[in-house]
Specification:
Layout: H1 8-32, H2 39-50, E1 53-54, H3 55-62, H4 66-78, E2 82-87, E3 90-98, H5 100-121, H6 126-150
Antiparallel strand pairs: 1-3, 2-3
Helix pairs in contact: 2-5, 3-4
Length: 151
């Protein structure tokens, strides 16, 4: 299906299916994980692995209310996975950052996820594995273009 032949219905179907499939894959993995963590908690840890962030930024990024993300960060802090500290650029603001324990949990999650997917993908025909690899490249391009539009 190239751009000229993709119908609106096909594009709509793909646009609806992608986030649903990604969420389902994540949910199924987290059910099997040895680490008790919600999908949003895992997303927050992943965001903090990139850089410390303010509560307001985390709330906007994960589409969660500010009170909701504050409670979530409280839970993560109680587990020792995140810490709050002053924002050097604005002492009135607080930055949330990943602790070494949080980094370890995130790496364990990533390793479990890789192992689970590796095991399942190893049963696929080579053609399907190549198709998935190509799809990842295409998704990376879409993500990059959408991220550029946010800047």
């Amino acid at each position: 299906m190239d751009r000229a032949s993709a119908t609106t219905a096909q594009l709509d179907e793909i646009a609806e299916a992608l986030p649903q499939r990604a969420a389902t894959l994540s949910r199924l993995f987290l059910k099997r994980s040895s680490i008790q963590i919600s999908r949003v908690e895992a997303l927050v840890l992943n965001a903090l692995a990139q850089q410390p962030r303010r509560i307001t930024e985390l709330a906007a990024r994960e589409a969660v209310s500010q009170p909701g993300i504050t409670l979530l960060v409280d839970r993560l802090q109680e587990r020792g996975w995140v810490a709050r500290g002053p924002d050097p650029s604005d002492r009135r603001a607080v930055l949330v950052s990943l602790t070494p324990a949080g980094e370890e949990v995130l790496e364990r999650l990533r390793a479990e996820y890789r192992a689970l997917l590796h095991e399942e993908m190893a049963t696929l025909p080579d053609r399907d594995v190549r198709t998935l690899a190509a799809a990842i490249e295409i998704l990376d391009g879409l993500i990059e273009r959408l991220a550029e539009q946010e800047r």
